[in-house]
Design brief:
about 140 residues; five-stranded antiparallel β-sheet; alpha+beta
Length: about 140
């Protein structure tokens, strides 16, 4: 896109990055997300979005055996970041902030809950899809 073209942040868009079950997928997902948001003029959301995507993709890769995917969608001023994995089991509920100060693990969804405007998960079944989708929203102000 030529630099002189204005960026239209009102047009909805969506990207999906399919990744293998490999710890390097987390870094690749984070860097891809940064590029997407920068190219769409949403640089103000990058730092928080990277943290959230890192936690979601890390959980998908660490706690499941199959492939995963990062899904990023922009619509009506809301950035939705989600991670799909092939395991239909619900994610562990986020811990309480007091119990996480010294914890080695288990802080991921607590960070998502603390940093996102909204988060949730849904099981996926049908049309050949299995697994779950864990997502969070950032609202642009």
């Amino acid at each position: 896109m030529p630099e002189s073209e204005p960026i239209d942040s009102t047009t909805p868009w969506e990207y999906t990055l399919h990744v293998p079950n490999d710890p390097r997928a987390v870094t690749i997902s984070r860097r891809t997300l940064r590029l997407i948001l920068t190219m769409h003029g949403l640089i103000g959301l990058v730092d928080t979005a990277e943290l959230l995507a890192t936690e979601l993709v890390s959980n998908a890769v660490r706690h499941t055996k199959g492939p995963a995917a990062l899904r990023v969608r922009w619509s009506a001023g809301v950035l939705r970041i989600g991670a799909w994995d092939a395991d239909p089991e619900p994610p562990e509920p986020p811990g309480m902030p007091d119990s996480l100060a010294e914890a080695e693990e288990g802080r991921g969804l607590a960070l998502v809950r603390a940093c996102a405007d909204l988060w949730g998960w849904q099981p996926l079944a049908g049309e050949g899809s299995r697994g779950k989708y864990v997502w969070c929203d950032l609202v642009r102000v």
